[in-house]
Amino acid sequence: MPFVVGVYEEQLSRMDEEFARLLEEYHLEAALGWGEFLNTLPSIHKVIPVEKSIPFEVQVFPYEQASALLNKAKSFGVRKCICRVQRGLLGEPCKYPIEVCMVFAPTEGAFDDDPDTRAITKEEALQILRETEEPV
To answer: Which domain holds residue 20?
Structure first.
């Protein structure tokens, strides 16, 4: 079974070398077993033909739009990138900064008690945004 969105990301405090290795093995095995998974009954994933093309667009917000979203928030936090943490534990460290995954919320104090999130100010969030926008 693939992870539900958020399950992997919430393993930050549990991630150690053994867990990183087990997750890597799981993903490799899951990639090989997708055909079997998709053919399981009752169907978990199903394509319903609508006989026409459905437009799809991935949006990567430029700094200007991302900063506008941050300016509307009242709480800000930053987390370590779970992907980069896992790769580092597997002996493949990333050359990019590790503490870059930002979270924000419309309520004050939203991340004050979250052990995986470092609460930061809006100014710090905007600085991280600027730094990650710069070419390496």
So the answer is: 9-133
